[in-house]
From TrEMBL:
Gene3D superfamilies: 3.30.70.270, PAS domain. One of its GO terms (molecular function) is diguanylate cyclase activity. This is diguanylate cyclase. It comes from the Bacteria. Its EC number is 2.7.7.65. It comes from Sulfuritalea hydrogenivorans sk43H. It catalyses: 2 GTP = 3',3'-c-di-GMP + 2 diphosphate. One of its GO terms (biological process) is cell adhesion involved in single-species biofilm formation. It is an enzyme of class 2 (transferase). The lineage of its organism: Bacteria, Pseudomonadati, Pseudomonadota, Betaproteobacteria, Nitrosomonadales. It holds the Pfam family PAS_9. Residues 18-62 form the PAS domain.
Length: 333
């Protein structure tokens, strides 16, 4: 007969039954769930987790290979960060996250996961909560998962509708206004100059009258695509300002740099060679007004727009197919 150790529950005790019931319950939860021990080994990988990831429990139980269910390269899951006391890394590793200041109560995060076994990408809402013994020692961490892919994609679509121009797909007037305000504050804080390009398609009414509004829409779409190809720095912005007018915000850019960008745009439009019988040269051209400003007490973003509009007006009346800068520079293509 084997003596029972002190503190050890008797065989078939309520403690044994309770633990068995808890494990069995977790296995059959409809919420995808897995459990890591204090060494990041997988203790439980329930059936819902198998369905969500395409990875069977037998493949990961007793290993630290659970990352393979979510990512193509090794990286910690949220439960790993809790086990290892690395919750400070959540911000760098996850698309969005909750307050990680109190990890003893659990951590929430959301992320796009590539799901290698499924061959598809999912947006998962993730919660990881620690379990401690009576002495306060970490015993395990439970991670639960929710598939939020459809919700996230719908949310992204709504956000794009609010910030993108429906016809051209580039930023809309609202995005332009918000970007100009935020960048103006940044430029003033960092004592850097910025430039604004106001761009108008020459004789666009004639183009619509000659070729029809559908052709006019295609023309605007082609111009928008071209602008985004020329203006590609992450901090800059190309927007449809209204009608046939576009606007470009060039951060940390002086008048010379803005002129180079404007000249490149005019060259690319000439290469595009969209036929336009109502234009002086027989193809679609642009007029561009440029304003550049260093942060000054009496200068505002409204002044920047006004100066660019004035320069655009001068470009139009000087013969079109050119850019004019509020600094006095002018180029004719």
């Amino acid at each position: 007969m084997v003596a029972k150790k002190k503190g050890e529950p008797a065989a078939g005790s309520d403690a044994d039954l309770g633990q068995s019931f808890a494990v069995n319950l977790m296995q059959h939860l409809v919420v995808p769930t897995f459990v890591l021990d204090a060494q990041c080994n997988v203790l439980i990988w329930n059936k819902a987790c198998e369905r969500l990831t395409g990875v069977q429990a037998a493949e990961v139980i007793g290993t630290r290979e659970h990352w393979r269910a979510f990512y193509e390269a090794p990286r910690p899951c949220l439960a790993d960060l809790v086990v290892q006391g690395r919750v400070g890394e959540v911000e760098a590793l996850y698309f969005t996250h909750g307050d990680a200041s109190g990890p003893s109560f659990g951590v929430h995060a959301e992320n796009w996961c590539v799901m290698p076994c499924l061959g598809s990408e999912l947006y998962l809402a993730i919660d990881a909560g620690p379990i401690y013994d009576g002495d306060g020692n970490l015993v395990a961490v439970i991670e639960t998962l929710r598939d939020m892919t459809d919700h996230r994609r719908a949310q992204t679509a709504l956000e794009q509708m609010a910030t993108r121009d429906f016809l051209t797909g580039i930023a809309n007037r609202r995005s332009f206004d918000e970007k100009l305000v935020s960048e103006w504050k940044r430029e003033c804080r960092d004592l850097r100059g910025m430039s604004l390009l106001m761009i108008d398609v020459d004789h666009f009414k004639r183009y619509n009258d000659t070729y029809g509004h559908q052709a006019g829409d295609r023309c605007l779409q082609q111009i928008a695509t071209l602008l985004e190809q020329v203006v590609f720095r992450p901090g800059d912005l190309v927007a449809r300002y209204g009608g046939e007018e576009f606007a470009v915000i060039l951060t940390a850019t002086d008048a010379i740099g803005a002129g180079i960008v404007a000249n490149r745009i005019l060259e690319r439009v000439a290469e595009l060679a969209l036929p336009h019988s109502g234009s002086e040269c027989g193809y679609v051209t642009l007029s561009i007004g440029i304003s550049t400003s260093l942060p000054e007490p009496d200068m505002t973003q409204e002044n920047l727009i006004s100066l660019a509009d004035s320069a655009l007006y001068k470009a139009k009346h000087a013969g079109r197919n050119r850019y004019v800068s509020d600094q006095g520079a002018e180029t004719v293509e």
